[in-house]
Amino acid sequence: MNELNNVNPICNGLRPKFSEDIPLIYIDLANNCMKESACDRPSASDIQKVLDNWTKENYYVNVLEKADIKSDNFKTEHSTNSYENSIIKSSSINSESILFSLPYS
Questions:
Q1: Mean pLDDT of the chain
Q2: What would the 3-class secondary structure string for 46-103 be?
Q3: Rg of the Cα trace of the chain?
Q4: How far apart (Å, rounded) are the C-alpha atoms in residues 30 and 12?
Q5: Do you know which InterPro entries this protein is assigned to (predicted)?
Q6: Distance from the Cα of residue 72 to its chain's centroid
Q7: What's the confidence (pLDDT) of residue 3?
Q8: Is residue 30 within 8 Å of 23, Cβ to Cβ?
């Protein structure tokens, strides 16, 4: 397994950097979901509770609406082809990284 850790930056703790335009609530949730130990990550039901909570409180609804508007404006201003300018392209997904980041049972 050590050989894989040397090759795979995700196993060595590589995580994405977020734009300052991304709402902190998204960043916090994403960082929790990317914790190194699977035991420390929220379960699907925990994530669902967080998302449900966001839709019930006006503060979160406003944050999410503003983020959607910024995202739409960015896409409109910078996109000539939505497939060329997508944030995550299917060709950039490394299936080995996904496989090796999953917890072993």
A1: 74
A2: HHHHHHHHHHHCHHHHHHHHHHHHHHHHHHHHHCCCCCCCCCCCHHHCCHHHHHHHCC
A3: 17
A4: 18
A5: Kinase-like_dom_sf
A6: 18
A7: 53
A8: no
